[in-house]
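Q: Joint fold for the lines below.
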Amino acid sequence: MKQGFDDVMSKVQKCGRKTVAVSVAQDSAVLEAVKEAKARGIADAILVGDEAKIREVAASIDMDLTGYEIIDEPDMIAASLKAVKLAHDGRADMYMKGLIETKDFLKSVLDKEVGLRTGNPLSHVCVFEIPGIDRLLFLTDVAFMTYPTLEDKVHIIQNTIPVCNACGVEMPKVAPLAAVEVVNPKMPATVEADQLTKMNEAGDITGCIIDGPLSLDLAIDPEAAKHKGATHRKIQGDADVLLFPDIHAGNLVYKAIVHMVKMRNGCILTGTKVPVILTSRSDTFETKVNSIALAAVVAEEMKKG
Amino acid sequence: MKQGFDDVMSKVQKCGRKTVAVSVAQDSAVLEAVKEAKARGIADAILVGDEAKIREVAASIDMDLTGYEIIDEPDMIAASLKAVKLAHDGRADMYMKGLIETKDFLKSVLDKEVGLRTGNPLSHVCVFEIPGIDRLLFLTDVAFMTYPTLEDKVHIIQNTIPVCNACGVEMPKVAPLAAVEVVNPKMPATVEADQLTKMNEAGDITGCIIDGPLSLDLAIDPEAAKHKGATHRKIQGDADVLLFPDIHAGNLVYKAIVHMVKMRNGCILTGTKVPVILTSRSDTFETKVNSIALAAVVAEEMKKG
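A: Joint structure:
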């Protein structure tokens, strides 16, 4: 294993202590993850929401609230704006969704006054540690952008590079995926994959090595790459970033891995001023904790950059 | 396990003995699979191709050719037409690709005189047995149709039902997949999934239960379906057929499973008069043997129908 989530956890310990602002924090699954993150030294938290409910939920999960800053705001929308402002103002290093609808949470992220806009589109990256693969895989976008254009794909790649860097991958290999590894004008995904590759060669996309279109076996399996005689390719089963043609392909692969493979993962939203943690209720406890750790190392990386 | 590949193998034993016509048979990987299929009582074979080369390859893998009919035809295209004609004329029950380019093999399948056309479009179905899932999953189309229209998807479903039936699934549950489980006019895959569901409810597509759009977790994971409160759905984590929106989504999921999961699988081409076995060189020996077994039970089912 060249790098895995244990390495991410080690990196977190070397960062300065980070703080996550939690939006509408009265959620037991989110507070459990926040509690674990604090216990493991990953991050402190500022809990924004209905204080009475936060205290009630915390008691129900044996969480000691000593040492947590709590900002009492019973109204959900107002709470989300107060929480995101903490990240906007630099008082928090990451921003995390609690018991609030995703659309309302995203409104706070995109708020023009106190939100986390950078001018670039937001995208989602999910990081997997999969048995048999000797490195982390960065899947994007499996949850946020529906049908990314070529320009969107450039932004997705640029959003993902700092996440790779934060996890110790200096010059990530990016595989724009398709069903096939050759350009076919009848398959727009392959044409765009080729365009991204050429933009990278021309120096228009830097900080990574792009080689596409690639089928998934050529992207992740060195044996398959050898078997198919792909010795001329820049990626030969050693891709770091898997760039999906659209959300259906990305999301279906993401869920196939989550439901069929014994793996570790964590996900964040990028393209924002600070990393945003948008876990879903169906994510496991470990995924939530991993996502906070991932956000912490990315926050550190973004400060450097 | 309600059904798995062991059940397919048991069913083969109960069928009348089947015969596969092999197109350009001088291929060691294909002959190894054919030899194993004969040894296990799955199928006999008629080997069409360059007899000298067939004997040479057979000797190299310790394959005794006694009991095999061999038709000597050194020209590859001519061999493929002679082989497919055996299936066309009913002398063989299945048709299998050997050492011939896929496009030339498919030309023989689609040949107007001696081929296996039915008037319906061809589609590919890949059958998986996956640890933790108590039944076979039928993935379609992960390899053949690129961007199926609504009408194509109807044909894909109709092509897949006999494969399910052959494997013991009487009334397969078909999940037209997407990134989300609600209809979104901005996502054509979800609209078509809904149309297929309504066509099924109206009795225009019979022999199966269709419920879509479905995300992959709702399609295959009963726990996830329960967690998401999907109690009103016809499919609650118990789908048999996974219908993909396009070849990118299908192929990427297919390869994710093949390369990340310890599974058993077999694949055939359907929509033809008899099942067609189109394994690729990168398929394992077991996959090739499973594909012949799958074709054998489907051939039996098609005779019944």
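Q: Anything notable?
A: The two ends of chain B are 27 Å apart (CA to CA). Residues 24 and 100 of chain B are 6 Å apart (CA to CA).
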